[in-house]
Amino acid sequence: MTTSNAGTRAQATAQAASAARLRVTVPSVADRVAAELRLQLAEGVLLPGTRLTESTIAEDLGVSRNTVREAFAELAAERLVVRLPNRGIFVASLGPGDIHDVYTVRRAVEVSAIRNGGTPERVAAVRAAVEEGKAAAAAGDEEALGTANQHFHGAIVALAECRRLDTIMSQVLAEMRLFFHKATLDAHFYRGYLDDNEEICAALEAGELDRAGDLLLAYLDRSEAKQSAVHGE
Amino acid sequence: MTTSNAGTRAQATAQAASAARLRVTVPSVADRVAAELRLQLAEGVLLPGTRLTESTIAEDLGVSRNTVREAFAELAAERLVVRLPNRGIFVASLGPGDIHDVYTVRRAVEVSAIRNGGTPERVAAVRAAVEEGKAAAAAGDEEALGTANQHFHGAIVALAECRRLDTIMSQVLAEMRLFFHKATLDAHFYRGYLDDNEEICAALEAGELDRAGDLLLAYLDRSEAKQSAVHGE
DNA sequence: AATCGTCAGATTGTTGAACAATCGGCCGAA
DNA sequence: TTCGGCCGATTGTTCAACAATCTGACGATT
Fold first, then answer.
1. pLDDT in tens, B92-125
2. Smallest Cα–C1' distance to nucleotide C13: which residue has it?
3. Could you report the per-residue pLDDT of A137-172, keeping only the tens digit for each?
4. Which residue is closest to B92 within chain A, CA to CA?
5. Alpha-carbon distance A86 to A64, whole Å?
6. Residue of A18, A33, A70 to mutate, interface with B, max B Cβ within 10 Å
7. What CATH number should be reported for the domain whose range is A26-91?
8. Which nucleotides of D are covered by protein (CB under 7 A)?
9. What would the pLDDT profile of A197-210 be if each residue is shown by its tens digit?
10. CATH code, A96-230
11. Domain B25-91 belongs to what topology?
12. Residue B49: CB partners within 8 Å, gap ≥ 6?
């Protein structure tokens, strides 16, 4: 047998495993390395296609190569990085096909979430994200506008109160962030979305869930088309 | 700078990263360890809550502890195991809340996929899964009936031709497989689903996508209720 | 000149051992 | 009984080494 203990013991440990997320825990070194890399990826310091050498990163961050390796495993699981066996790991790059792929996930997750509505608190969070975007636009802060837009869509998924959907969505958003640095150069890129967000949010608040879903769907289709036009072929 | 080379070089490596999945590659030792553990998890050799000791598994499989560690990282990313810092890793166990969570994901993914239909080939694959289930039922093979049911739902998601949705679905199914050994003891558990699958598939083949979606949704709700009744509180 | 093998350098994959940090449980004291 | 501290076991992390593999260049052959 490859396992050590089972049976009645499992009962006790099982609930411990469930309560894992309540635990106070210091993020491991590997986690912090992964976090640092995630940050650099999100900020565009590391561009798609860039090769990440284990030893280099280990030196730069002052950790062991094995630890870097673990961090890479995390990032690879999130698709932020691609592992080419015996060749190294590279910052992931999305091809035209991937754009459609990503938006297909978003259509499934976001539309499903909004169609089922959510508690008043969750709806309020969506509204807050809309206002955050407006404020950013008023301040002329394009960067903040972008993150506000992500908050908006994150809040929509959060309506479902489903932890797994939340992580799926945050991963998808991370992938897009990695990819959209080119597009973001267009200063007015997000500006056109403000009205959409407002309209979707209003429909949500009015309880017109199906209409909100349709609006969101149309929005996503338009957004995909725009992205495909910018990148893509 | 933490990166080594960028710019024009990135262009070349970028497409290499994209074409990664076409590459001929031997799965690494860590991957094989992960695969072995996945198998044992799916077969119920390792029950939820069981503790997996690094050194033990390293010995049993004849690999290094570091390698086992990498395998664990893979499985943790798939939620099949849970890592308790400084305490070890345990086979994941789903609580009542998780059941709803998982089904929420399935509703989002599956219903979205079926509502958009798919190519005739993909629809045929769904039909094939239905027939596979009928054959298993006729043969009285409960195990085959279970896997046929998973094929059915996998085929539905495959309608969308979205790689990311496919992996999401397969991960969710893996989680459920891990969890449903108790339920599967009831020999007739899947039997009731046969008619549902047939009806859903028929609607799909007839192009009545909305109806197929509604049927599927109802099916998932019923399935969740059943599971919650068996486990749960 | 173009193609093909070969070779050297570099990087990854994997191992083994070591050590600190942390955890769980046992034992003793109040 | 309960609290506090100690002990053994396991994990987290590092380091060093080696085999396997890839890349690129050099040179030989056709």
1. 998 888 999 999 999 999 999 999 999 999 999 9
2. A86
3. 999 888 888 899 999 999 999 999 999 999 999 999
4. A17
5. 19
6. A18
7. 1.10.10.10
8. 10-17, 20-23
9. 999 999 999 999 99
10. 1.20.120.530
11. Arc Repressor Mutant, subunit A (1.10.10)
12. A9, A10, A11, A12, A13, A14, A15, A17, B90, B91, B93
